[in-house]
Amino acid sequence: MDPRLPYQAIQYFPLPIEFLTLAHNNIHSVDKNLFDHLPYLESLDMSGNPLKILEGIMKQALAKLRNLQVLDLANTSIDSIPKGMLHNLLDLKTLILADNHFHEVPEELSNSHNLSVLILDGNKFRLLNAESFPESLNTLERLDISYMPTLKEIKTGAFGKLKNLRVLQCHHNRRLTKISDGAFVGITEDPQLWPIREMYLNNNGIHVLHKAMAAWVFVDKLNIQNNPFRCDCNIQWMVEILIPEIQSAKKEYVLDATCREPEEMRGTSLVMLSTEHETFLKCTPEGGQSLGRNDKVLRLPTFQPANAGYSTTATLGR
Asked: Per the database record, which ranges form the LRRCT domain (predicted)?
């Protein structure tokens, strides 16, 4: 290069790079022009770097990646996404924010356009509610919210805006004891159009799954193992309907589905209960102790496939 050329005459040609990994390099920040000559970049892995904050120069650098489809910011010690950072990333399909310090779903996700996959594993959420996920995530097909040590509850409407969700990974959240029976309210008005095909709810702290929570018959893969189920009349429907359905589709997903309460049923297999003829589960108070032998025991209607109707018979024993 002729040293007498003016600075403006120096040209850089775009590099034909589509995939770039800068993971685990002790990077704290990057130059705002770092990606200027990577117009074809589709996948960027920045995971494992101590970025801590994305404001300023880092935000400017990422905003120039107009063709980016996959962005991995896992384990980068960030707790927020700066406003406007996702606005220019029109083709972004996969965003990985796992193992960071988020206490809630980042507000900046409302500026996303076509996200299909969102990985939020290992963050510090305490609860999810109807305001957690923005309308812009109605394109989302996979959501991962696992390995969250502080997640305790999923409230009504939490997933209602995720109308195209196909896969829900929500497992190994040991403090997650309650998923509202209305958690999916709004996801579809027609149960026949239920979108979710795979749900992984294993290894949580769940005591009961409500029959009204989901259109379970349309879920092809459902893992509910290793939850501390309270085996009373509230899970009668699970014993009669859900467990046989899971076992027929993927029997290994119920091998370790057992009772934690009441004490006299601790360790009892839900599969065993489902195969016993005329299994009746007693109603119990919150503490987990069975009620007396004269207390009511609920028998739920027999499940029938969609459009086949439901049995109208139910018995109430004493």
From this structure: 227-284
